[in-house]
Amino acid sequence: MRALQEQTVLITGATDGLGRGLASVLAAEGATLLLHGRDEARGRQTLAQIEAATGNRRLRWLRADFACLGEVRGLAGSVAGSCDRLDVLVNNAGIGTTLPGDGSRMESRDGYELRFAVNYLAGYLLTRSLSTLLERSAPARVVNVSSAGQAPIDFADVMLERRYSGVQAYCQSKLAQIMFTFDLAEELDGRIVSATCLHPATYMPTKMVRAAGVEPISTLEQGIEATLRLAADPRLEGVTGAYFNGQPRAEPHPQASDPAARRELRELSDRLCGLAA
User: Fold this and answer.
1) 3-class state of residue 243 by DSSP
2) 128 CB-near residues (< 8 Å, 6+ apart)
């Protein structure tokens, strides 16, 4: 594993909460960072603040709205076209149970249920689109920031058109991330590209937790530490296909280990993202 000063790391959702905190730590360690978000002004401000605090000038801002798969493709194309290597991809961007929409069902610009689209499909497409660059940068890592809040996917109503719940929407999108992680681990040689996922911490004091009216339990620092470990700890080199609850390895919802369910999700995801043959 290369030293952090020699690594390029892409963090999605890097303008707030866990993503911003992780970016700050990695910048202080000297990594080259690609910081993603959807708000241009906020992104530029975040980059400037992290640069001022750490002295690291190897930071680049990338804007894309993950509610639009076309913009995700554009982001992937920009990274692949301008970077010689990508050592770590942290799929962190996401929305919670109530914000936006205040609990009502919303759709992405592509017409998909919003939480499934932003929390899962965008990361799926981004990772698939950058797989060649990741493999070329071996050993590389994919870290999916999921949650202990997981719900099985009803493939007869994935978009929750019949009965909508913000909690169900969020939790099924998080289980989908774990299922994708396990698929990646089976597809890729972990010595070349490893894939892990985690519940970083419980109810950190983030915007989505506050919007849901939930009292924080864990600190943001706990979540940052757990995520940083998967992204950068040399002792985890080659560890793949694993889900962590904080730092301990854990077992996710049983559907994550169901080959038929994972195959159905993979085929659906390829169709929705325009990747199907």
Assistant:
1) strand
2) 273, 275
DSSP-derived letter for residue 216 is: P
255, 182 contact by CB (below 8 A):
no
Active site annotation includes 170: yes
Range of the domain at 139: 4-272
What are the pLDDT digits (tens) for 133-164?
Answer: 999 999 999 999 999 999 999 999 999 999 99
Kindly give the pairing relationship between strand 242-245 and strand 8-11.
unpaired
Catalytic residue among 112, 170, 203, 243: 170
Cα–Cα nearest to 217, from 132, 149, 126 = 149
pLDDT tens-digit map of 44-58: 999 999 999 999 999
Number of structural domains the chain divides into: 1
> What tokens does 84 get?
């010689």
CATH of the domain at 53: 3.40.50.720
- Side-chain half-sphere CA neighbours of 1 within 13 A: 19
Q: What is the Cα–Cα distance from 184 to 240, expressed in whole angstroms?
A: 9
What is residue 248's three-state secondary structure? coil
